[in-house]
Amino acid sequence: MSVPRFTEEQVQRYARHIILPNIGGEGQRKLLEASVLVIGAGGLGSPVAMYLAAAGVGRLGIVDFDRVDLTNLQRQILHTTADVGRPKVASAVEHLRAINPTIEIVGHETLLTSANALDVLGPYDVVVDGTDNFPVRYLVNDATQFLGKPLVYGSIYQFEGQATVFMPGPQTPCYRCLFPSPPPPGTVPSCAEGGVFGVLPGVIGSIQATEAIKLITGQGRTLEKRLLLYDALHMEVQEVRIRWDADCPVCGKEPTITELIDYEAFCGVPARPE
C-alpha cells in the first residue's frame, strides 16, 4: 500500500518541519495521522492546542465545560475579548480552525466524569492534561492508565509550574505515584484565589506541546519518569526523578482501583467550581 503524498499546501505549510532533522517527512506524516486530546481550553490548553494545531496534528480534540470570562484573557490566549461569554470549546474550535483549517478539530463541551471519561479519551492517541482541579487530574490519570495511553501532565501555581509525561505499562510511574493523595480541601488556592503569572501557562503549555510532538514522532527524550519544575520569578529550572510505587493503587503490583471511582468524593472538592 503506497503512502499518500503530501499536498502542495501541506509541503508549504509544514516546510520547516519537513526539512528539520529528526522530524522530516516521516515525522510530519506521523503528526498528520495522530490524534491528541487536550483537556481544558484555559491557560495551559491554549498554547498546547495552538501549537499542536499549527504543527499539523491530524485530529485535535478539546474538552471544556466553562465559558470565557474577562479575567481569563490575561493568560488564556486562545480566546479574545469578543469571545467573553461564549463556551470555551466553541471559541477554541473557531480559533484553532483559523490557525489550521486543514486538520480536524473536535469540541467536547462537557465536564469529564467517571461516566464519560473512557468514551471521550478512548479515540485519541495522546492525552494532554491542562486541567486546574484535582478530581479531574486523578480521573484523567486513572482513565489513561486503564486505556493504555500516554498522558502529558502540566500544572501551574502563581509563579511556578511543572510538567512530566506518564506512560502506561509495568513499573512505570503514574500521577498517583507522584501524588498518592490529593491535598486537603482548601489548602491549594485556585487561580481566582491565589492569582497566576500571565505568561507562566505559556511556558508550561509549550513544554507539554513539545512532549506530545515527541511522543508522536518518536524523537528525543521525553519527560517520562522526570518532573520538570519551573520558577518564573527566579528563572530557575529543576528536575526531580519520579519513581514507580509498587503499592500504587492503580499501576502497582496489586492494584486496588481497577475502575473509575467517585473523584469528587476522593478529593473532597467538586470538579466544577461552585
Task: State the helical fraction.
Answer: 25-40%
Q: How many domains would you count in the coordinates? A: 1
- Shape estimate: globular
| SS strand fraction | 15-25%
What is the fourth-level CATH superfamily?
A: NAD(P)-binding Rossmann-like Domain
For the largest beta-sheet, the strand count, sense and barrel status come to: 8 strands, mixed
Q: What is the C-alpha radius of gyration, as a whole number of Å? A: 18 Å
Q: Specify the structural class.
A: alpha/beta
Say how many strands there are: 8
Give the count of helical stretches: 11
Distance between the termini: 54 Å
- Strand adjacency order, main sheet: 3-2-1-4-5-6-7-8
List the helices and strands and how they pair.
Blueprint: H1 8-13, H2 15-18, H3 24-33, E1 35-39, H4 45-55, E2 59-64, H5 88-99, E3 104-109, H6 117-121, E4 126-129, H7 134-147, E5 151-157, E6 160-166, H8 175-178, H9 191-194, H10 200-217, E7 226-231, E8 236-241, H11 263-267
Parallel strand pairs: 1-2, 1-4, 2-3, 4-5
Antiparallel strand pairs: 5-6, 6-7, 7-8
Helix pairs in contact: 4-5, 4-10
What do you see in this structure?
With 274 residues, the protein is α/β, with parallel strands linked by helices. The protein has a single domain (10-267), classed as Rossmann fold. Helices cover 34% and strands 17% of the residues. The chain contains 11 helices and 8 strands. It has helices at residues 8-13, 15-18, 24-33, 45-55, 88-99, 117-121, 134-147, 175-178, 191-194, 200-217, 263-267, and strands at 35-39, 59-64, 104-109, 126-129, 151-157, 160-166, 226-231, 236-241. It has an 8-stranded mixed β-sheet, with helices on both faces. Helix 7 links the parallel strand 4 and strand 5. Helix 4 (45-55) runs parallel beside helix 5 (88-99). The longest helix is centred in the C-terminal third of the chain and has 18 residues, at 200-217. The chain is globular, with a radius of gyration of 18 Å. The mean pLDDT is 95.
